UniProtKB/TrEMBL annotation:
Signal peptide span: 1-24
Source organism: Nonomuraea guangzhouensis
Keyword Signal annotated: yes
Family matches, as InterPro entries: Bact_Solute-Bind_Prot2, SBP_2_dom
Domain Periplasmic binding protein: 43-306
Tree of life domain: Bacteria
Record's keyword annotation contains Signal: yes
Protein name, per record: Sugar ABC transporter substrate-binding protein
Lineage of producing organism: Bacteria, Bacillati, Actinomycetota, Actinomycetes, Streptosporangiales
Length: 365
């Protein structure tokens, strides 16, 4: 899973909503023909896993609510692949059999789903890549965040924290990157390394299958053993779940003071860790904007429309029309004016008994 701690205005990220009425048949330049007419449309949403809490807690309900707001008669087919690429293939093929008019696909393995996209193209069903860029084939749209910028923000935050502590040149950092099957992970890594390169010594570096917090914990344990507890001065973690795993490993190793560690997704547990000082920062993604943008696109293309994209992203084969949203970096002093202000979480959700004192210090009531 940095935005300039300012949410993107709704007008800048959302397409104009159109009612689900009759429209003429339209053939997009991607070769997908959406059926027009009064019949209800079927929109299929595929999410990759549930270990990262955002998908079931935010992405799915926000997407579904926006579709129903724009098109009350539209049918939604929802599937979560639980990090199983073969299961996702079955889910996509089932949706195509059930007559889906558009696929919104967050791929488990974004480098291996081109055959699935091709099946949809053969049936003239538009595909929207959600959150993860699909490689190797042409399709309708890509909706995500500026992932390289996410990595840049993580790297800069970690560097700033180590500089403030005066530890940058006194030890080594551990880098815990995301799943190698997720192209976004490579972008986060690229962004972070562009900031950290030549300024820090990397003691250990890992790619983490499935973005698994358990595997991240094991990786951190290996790094502590190899580098030495007192020689680790920072941890670059690509998301909050893995940060939690790394923190568990450091606590188990007996750290009296944890080195600064990054994250992403603004998970509730991570926000609480940031306030109590266990985690340095997270990247707050405006998931509402991402989910609602994707829902608006899905409804539009299901009706045969072809909204104009705001940018393009090359997926190794072709430039894909894209909508890229801005990330926001959040440290303890920014939680109140971002996450709480935007009602991503309420103060009551964040400020449990264990976090109450830290909330008061941060001015969160």
């Amino acid at each position: 899973m940095d935005r300039s701690w300012r949410l993107i205005p709704a007008a800048a990220v959302l397409l104009a909503a159109a009612a689900c009425g009759n429209s003429a048949n339209t053939t997009t330049d991607k070769g997908a023909t959406a059926n027009a007419g009064g019949a209800s449309k079927t929109i299929a949403l595929f999410l990759p896993e549930s270990k990262t809490t955002r998908y079931e807690a935010f992405d799915r309900p926000l997407f579904e609510a926006k579709v129903k707001q724009l098109c009350a008669e539209c049918k939604i087919l929802y599937s979560n692949a639980e990090q199983d690429a073969a299961k996702q293939q079955q889910q996509v093929e089932a949706a195509l059999t059930q007559g889906a008019n558009v696929l919104v696909l967050d791929a488990v393995d974004a480098n291996a789903v081109a055959p699935l996209v091709n099946q949809a193209k053969q049936k003239k069903i538009p595909v929207i890549a959600y959150d993860r860029l699909i490689s190797g084939i042409d399709y309708a749209y890509y909706v995500s965040f500026n992932n390289v910028r996410v990595g840049e923000m993580q790297g800069q935050a970690l560097l700033d924290a180590m500089n403030a502590k005066g530890t940058t040149a006194k030890g080594q950092i551990v880098e815990i990157h995301g799943a190698p099957t997720d192209p976004s992970s490579a972008d986060y890594k690229k962004g972070a390394k562009s900031v950290l390169g030549g300024k820090v010594k990397v003691g250990r570096e890992f790619d983490t299958p499935d973005w698994s917090p358990d595997k991240a914990q094991q990786q951190m344990e290996q790094a502590i053993t190899a580098i030495g507890r007192d020689n680790i001065v920072g941890v670059l973690s690509a998301n909050d779940g893995m940060a939690g795993g790394a923190i568990a490993a450091m606590k188990r190793a007996g750290y009296k003071e944890l080195p600064p560690i990054t994250g992403q997704d603004a998970e509730l547990a991570a926000v609480q860790r940031i306030l109590t000082g266990e985690q340095y920062m997270t990247i707050y993604l405006d998931i509402r904007a991402e989910a609602e943008k994707s829902a608006e696109l899905a409804v539009a293309v299901a009706k045969g429309e072809q909204p104009a994209a705001t940018s393009k992203v090359n997926n190794g084969t072709v430039d894909i029309p894209a909508f890229l949203l801005d990330p926001i970096a959040v440290t303890a002093d920014k939680v109140k004016d971002t996450i709480v202000k935007d009602k991503f979480y309420t103060a009551d959700q964040i400020c449990t008994a264990e976090v109450k004192a830290a909330c008061a210090k941060a001015g969160i009531q």
